[in-house]
Amino acid sequence: MIEVKDLSHQFELGKKGKKTTIPVLKTVSFMINKGEIVTLVGRSGSGKSTLLHLISGFLPRQTGTIILNGQDVTGLTETAFSQFRLGTIGFIFQNFQLIQSMTAYQNVELPLILNGVSETARHVQTLNTLAKVGLEGFEHHYPSELSGGQQQRVSVARALVLNPLIILADEPTGSLDSETERDLLDLILELNATLHITFLIITHDEEVAAIGHRSLAMHDGQLIDGEVN
Ligand SMILES: Nc1ncnc2c1ncn2[C@@H]1O[C@H](COP(=O)(O)OP(=O)(O)OP(=O)(O)O)[C@@H](O)[C@H]1O
């Protein structure tokens, strides 16, 4: 489902004539099968977010190959990648990244609007998805009127609404207390079991790492052997 081959990345700092190159990823290769939950662990600065941003196309690839659901995305134009991403990948972030001026309903409806779904179908899918994450009755609440756990559920619903095959998550429980964290982990396990969504989850948290079928460990931009839980 996710295949990464010889992916390297470097950032350039400084102005012309005084440029410094920082190698952040060094020929990273791995494969994740459909339906796996894989956690990505490693010290701060080891390159985890950079790897996730390259897989999602948020950062332009420099060298190496990324294949998602059998499609080599490295040859796609930015527009084609955006379209592909919309129907294939959902995202969950530590700080939820909800649009504050929109209700829970509107936040979840947005990907459907971007994907050209009709208003009637949008209504059904948005309500169904909010129900799936246990947020019936909270449709008209703004993010500021929801708890952290509820906001993260809205962001999970937004990630789910276009039926993605893959969900990429960057420290999804980083802003949650331990009880709310457990609820979110149970939701991830349920989505994986019922919808067979493949998850790649960056985490520093042992409880999160424990739900993975496997763990990939990064060190200084390189992948050191993954562990099977
Ligand atoms: N836009 C950028 N420009 C320059 N350097 C960057 C940029 N983004 C990240 N870096 C550097 O790349 C390295 C890897 O960063 P990255 O965010 O991928 O690490 P991480 O493992 O996700 O860390 P954390 O666990 O703290 O989120 C760090 O040294 C960081 O300073």
TrEMBL record:
Keyword Transport appears in the UniProt entry: yes
ATP-binding is among the record's keywords: yes
PROSITE patterns xref list: ABC_TRANSPORTER_1 (PS00211), ABC_TRANSPORTER_2 (PS50893)
Residue ranges annotated for the ABC transporter domain, each copy included: 2-228
Pfam families listed in its UniProt record: ABC_tran
Listed InterPro entries: AAA+_ATPase, ABC_transporter-like_ATP-bd, ABC_transporter-like_CS, ABC_transpr_LolD-like, MacB-like_ATP-bd, P-loop_NTPase
UniProt-recorded Gene Ontology molecular function terms: ATP binding; ATP hydrolysis activity; transmembrane transporter activity
Keywords: ATP-binding, Nucleotide-binding, Transport
CDD domains, A to Z: ABC_MJ0796_LolCDE_FtsE
GO terms under cellular component: membrane protein complex; plasma membrane
PANTHER family: ABC TRANSPORTER ATP-BINDING PROTEIN YTRE (PTHR24220:SF648), IMPORT ATP-BINDING PROTEIN (PTHR24220)
Family: Belongs to the ABC transporter superfamily.
Protein name according to UniProt: Acetoin utilization transport system ATP-binding protein
